[in-house]
Amino acid sequence: MPPPKDVVKIAIQMVGAIPQLIELQQVPPGTPAPLRGTPAPWSLPHAEHYALQYADGRQTYITESNRREIKNGSILRLTTSPDQEAERLYSGIQSKNVDVKTDSLKKLASLSQDVTFAQEFISRNGLKQIYSIVEEGNDTGEMLAHTLKAFTELMEHDFVSWENLSTVFIKKIVSYVNMNAVDASIQQLSLSILENMVPTSRVFFELVKKEVTLDRLLIHLQMTNTQLQLKAMALLIALLLTATDAERRDMMDYLREKNIRQFIHKNIVHSSEPLGDEMAHYLYVLQSVSLNLCENRMRTSMDPYSQEQRELLQSLRQTAFESESEVPASNFSTERRRSLCAKEFRKLGFMNNSNPAEDLRRAPPGLLALDNMVYFSRNTPNAYSRFVLENSSREDKHECPFARSSIQLTLILCEILHIGEPCSETAQAFYPMFFGQDHFFEELFCICIQLVNKTWKEMRATQEDFDKVMQVVREQITRTLALKPTSLELFKTRVNALNYSEILKLRQTERLHQEETLAVPVLELRERLKPELLELIRQQRLLHLCEGTLFRKISSRHRQDKLWYCRLSPNHKVLHYGDVEEGVHSPPIESLTEKIPVADMKMLLVGKECPHTKEKSSGKQNKDVLELAFSIVHDVEEYCLNFIAPTRYEFCLWTDGLNVLLGKEMTSERTQTDLDVLLSMELKLRLLDLENISIPDTPPPIPKPPSNLNFCYDFSHAEQ
After folding, report:
1. pLDDT tens for residues 136-169?
2. Could you give the CA distance from residue 355 to residue 340 in angstroms, rounded to a whole number?
3. Which residues does the UniProt record annotate as the domain ELMO (predicted)?
């Protein structure tokens, strides 16, 4: 007879005693939290001074809120209760004995990860003692490292606001960042504390920005210690995101002077060490912040009364035509000069040649289009003149309008590069070539505007074909960017190789594939193949779950450094999970101490339905997080294991795999994509012998049976 569901069999350890197996009642009435006085095989005085704690993993205390997570076979330890331990360590960190104080701080740093202990310690005003150790101490060794680690873990629980920190404490943390002769672990913790602190208060931002100079952060970025490099980048990103638009622009200008892009391109993007997810995210944010500096110009229409803007517009005309003119335009009458300017602006490709400023009133792309045209004319004057003069000599209907093309191209590039959109909290997709060039957007424009002219000629386009040409150019750019070229030169080579005829071939291939798969017999064959291929996809999803994935813990305040790993057991019966350290990519299943039996899984929640997304509902912050969030409900509905997938791909594979375990249909968009790919491959193999043979929509008619079809043996005569 199976044991009752509310009873679990566990092992309990205690120092100096033989471990014992007991049956634990999961829901005894009126048990206080933390769980004290649990029936144990030892008779102990003052049972309320003891509590149960997991013996493996993070050694979390068992409380009323998490006791139902105890599984059969768990190993627990009977130890000092959180309040007693908090009291002991509170006294220990005030000890005059250095060894006792150091040991207490080390233990405090370890136990502070547990929310129950942290609450008890903070309630005793323990953080005040930590402030005192930092503010009044001169130690920069092991004791300080344990102190900063304990402080970081305690603040992680959000019981105390970062805004309560004193200026003295902050300046002390800043001093550790600015010191040369200090242990790297202390600098990492100090940088992490400042990163958490900066977004919480404008005062803190200004203090840290003033005390920790960009030069100092650049020194840390150039260290060979990858963790120190990562923390320095995290603080730099926190400062950039918290700064005002003007401050952000000044900071980016200074970093450009210091050649930070070239350093990142050489020493981080192309480092011999693999790029971690965290660093990839920071590089994405740095790219996004830098490109978004163009947003103001993109959203600003041209002011026809602005002298500066009019001069920029006139410089385009002068660069293209006045050097060719034998007679200066100033020698003509006002009317003749106005007529000549209008003619030249028309040759430049402006729709409104009498008042070209009107073409730039549309925002976006606004003044950004004008900036790009001026940059192209000044930095590549030969290419600019060749573009304009070459099209000036064509027949009117075949000339490629430079200005109109530039305005539309600028808009296309803004859309492709997501200029003006807020940074995603989880994205890691950056372009390696971005960090190899100072004026990336402008240089990219220079390559692409010449591509427009090349494609225009290849298509033999007229003015009526303008939109078609720009659609082809957009496709050329997006297809090439998807290849992630490492430099603009490589991008230029590849995008020019992807000419109009290649685009047509790609489109034709895709169209033929679509047409051949729409024939009625082929559709019937697809339906027959689907069950077999869906089973193949199910097996692949379960195999992926067995391999496991590294997940990050993300709070509403900032992107966390903490990692945890989850994988399915080879027999598909248990989900194993547990915390892991940075750099561990595939921990053995035995090291993952937490377990959820698949039989106990009730349902899968995604997006807004997940409890951890409801806790962090703060508008744009969570648009990307919502797309990656999912939760497993197990035992009873209030107990969930919450996930934030590192990528949309992982989200699809995990939600599909979990649905398979729950006996439900796979619903992700990846399932349909994979099914289409597999069906396409299978159909091509099956139809290989029918190449160049048209498949009729209906099967040929079956002929009538012949009149002499009478050779069937009649069993009825045999019975008689």
Report:
1. 877 768 899 999 999 999 998 888 888 888 889 9
2. 13
3. 308-481
